[in-house]
TrEMBL record:
Region of interest (Disordered), ranges: 183-213
Biological process (GO), any one: proteolysis
Highest taxon in the source lineage: Bacteria
Pfam families: Peptidase_S10 (PF00450)
A molecular-function term among this protein's GO annotations: serine-type carboxypeptidase activity
InterPro entries in UniProt: AB_hydrolase_fold (IPR029058), Peptidase_S10 (IPR001563), Ser_caboxypep_ser_AS (IPR018202)
Organism: Nitrosomonas marina
Name of this chain's protein: Carboxypeptidase C (Cathepsin A)
Keywords: Carboxypeptidase, Glycoprotein, Hydrolase, Protease, Signal
Lipid metabolism recorded as keyword: no
UniProt feature, compositional bias: Basic and acidic residues: 183-199
Signal peptide boundaries: 1-42
Length: 549
């Protein structure tokens, strides 16, 4: 996400994060989370790609597939049904705005009205739900190597004994422009043109804004309407409702938790945010901002430790890597924070920051203690001509350009990850779920991120979009709502320490403080790709649902 020269329009947060500091432009927000990089790939993802053909082959809601399956775990057999279908969403004027594709899993022989129902979203914006679907939560999962790296092709799909289907029914939702979900254009209007208009004219209240589907407010409204429609169509209004979102999906879910209550009469019992961005200003800022650097230092130290560059080994005997990073966190909030604010006239804090991050003092001094993530991933293993992934700094990659100091391009690890997910999802939906349509399945759609209306999520004339206030308001309206935030310690896109700081800064009422929990795992932006963390996340989520109920 990027801001234009007027600091108004953000395009995609994720991998743009390093460009923000790397290029020194006014602002480049990474949409992450989602945070997905500048160049989102796959041939089929040239999403302007023959949109006219997509319209001619648009989803027909009569195409609905329901299949039966059995998932075998160590303790039981789960008999479940899988529904692959789409729902048409209408705006406040009862005009169709989009057809949203979803895959829903329901345990058979259980009381559906009492069983938890979880809606799952990925981020981007522009990412389909395949990451969480076939990576972590669904009953089937793409096989990755134990440490999170991608196995050689072709992709393999296996049963997932850590599927959250064990304790909740699941609905994986692909927002408009991702997966098989598509816009519905209004007669006599050109929505494509409206998406190209200025951010200001696309703000809430303008006549043509009703035609928009890609934007902060627009997205929240459409997905809230989808959830309401689904509860109605499936007679699930009495089910406890949960929300799960990853990356920008975490931002999305935080906003939905408020909007569902205030506008649609739906009070979530719990929300789970995986590697979320809660406040883009907190992570992006500018050259004089302090929090972005403070947030990154503990993850830098974790990466340096796993690559044996700072002499501090993370304790892998514990599921919580934060126990090994207490000194780094303490220094980040004291000596490092005050040093950034005071300048480099006191070199003592520079030396200590460099020791934690595994970097030489010269790098810290040249950059006033502010080492961009794109510089860090190049510098740490420069002697081996290797670079780290921003999404998971425990993963090493061949450096194609060791002659340059900063990585400002695409993240090869994300590219590697997308390959098996695209092929596995296309095979799984068609062959296992028996859902067959002519439109291509879009895992990452760069047109969505390019067209995203960030302005609608910014209150005031300047600033960044944020969802912290939405989450706090949702918790205040519904004091029983539980919140769990999950992070990977090696994530340099949405570092865990940012969420830790923001939780403290939310200034929650004493009645609500215990409703928020933060869990950190041995992994990256998608911590569940590490086999050990997949199991730990499953156990924490199972306990979370039990407590919330």
């Amino acid at each position: 996400m990027t801001y234009n020269s007027d600091n108004v329009k953000m395009k995609r947060p994720e991998l743009y994060l390093n460009r923000l500091w790397c290029m020194g432009k006014k602002a480049i927000a990474w949409g992450c989370f989602v945070l997905v990089t500048v160049t989102v790939h796959a041939t089929e993802n040239n999403s302007a790609q023959d949109e006219s053909q997509d319209k001619a082959r648009a989803l027909d809601e009569s195409i609905r597939s329901v299949t039966s399956h059995v998932l075998t775990t160590e303790t039981s057999e789960i008999v479940y049904s899988a529904t692959a279908a789409s729902l048409t969403v209408h705006d406040s004027q009862s005009r169709a705005v989009g057809k949203i594709f979803y895959v829903a899993y329901k345990q058979e022989n259980l009381n559906g009205k009492e069983r938890p129902l979880t809606f799952v979203f990925n981020g981007g914006p522009g990412a389909a739900s395949a990451y969480l679907h076939l990576g972590a939560l669904g009953p089937r999962r793409v096989v990755f190597n134990k440490g999170g790296s991608v196995a050689p092709p072709p992709a393999r799909i296996a049963d997932n004994p850590e599927s959250w289907l064990a304790f909740t029914d699941l609905v994986f939702v692909d927002p408009i422009g991702t997966g098989y979900s598509r816009r519905v254009e209004q007669a006599g209007s050109n929505e494509r043109d409206s998406d190209k208009r200025s951010p200001e004219s696309g703000s809430s209240g303008q006549s043509h804004s009703r035609q928009r589907v890609w934007g902060v407010e627009e997205d929240s409204d459409i997905l809230s309407r989808f959830i309401r429609n689904y509860l109605t169509e499936e007679s699930r209004w009495l089910s406890p409702v949960y929300l799960v979102g990853e990356s920008y999906g975490g931002f999305r879910v935080a906003r939905l938790s408020r909007l569902l209550q205030s506008e649609f009469g739906i009070a979530p019992s719990g929300v789970t945010l995986i590697s979320p961005v809660l406040d883009f200003g907190f992570l992006l800022g500018n050259d004089r901002s302090l929090w972005p650097w403070v947030s990154l230092l503990p993850s830098y130290a974790a990466a340096a430790a796993v690559h044996q560059k700072n002499g501090r080994l993370i304790d892998y005997q514990t599921d919580d890597p934060r126990t090994s990073l207490a000194d780094v966190e303490r220094f980040a909030m004291t000596g490092y924070l005050s040093g950034l604010a005071g300048g480099v006239n006191r070199p003592d804090w520079i030396e200590r920051a460099g020791n934690f991050a595994g970097l030489g003092q010269d790098i810290l001094l040249r950059n006033r203690g502010r080492v961009r993530s794109g510089r860090f991933v190049k510098a740490l293993l420069a002697d081996k001509r290797r670079l780290l992934s921003l999404y998971d700094a425990s993963i090493t990659l061949i450096d194609p350009r060791p002659d340059i100091q900063s990585d400002v391009g695409r993240d090869f690890y994300l590219d590697q990850l997308n390959v098996p997910l695209i092929s596995a999802m296309n095979h799984y939906i068609r062959e296992n779920l028996n859902f067959k349509v002519a439109v291509p399945y879009l895992l990452l759609n760069k047109q969505v991120s390019r067209s995203w209306n960030w302005r609608s999520g910014i209150h005031g004339q300047q600033g960044f979009a944020e969802a912290v206030s939405d989450l706090k308001q949702a918790m205040s309206m519904n004091p029983d709502m539980q919140v769990m935030i999950m992070h990977g310690v090696f994530d340099l896109v949405t570092p865990y320490f940012a969420s830790a700081i923001m939780i403290n800064q939310m200034a929650l009422d004493t009645q609500l403080v215990g409703n928020v929990r933060l869990r950190v795992y041995h992994g990256g932006h998608m911590p569940y790709l590490h086999k050990r963390s997949l199991g730990a996340m499953f156990k924490d989520a199972q306990q979370f649902y039990r407590q919330a109920l």
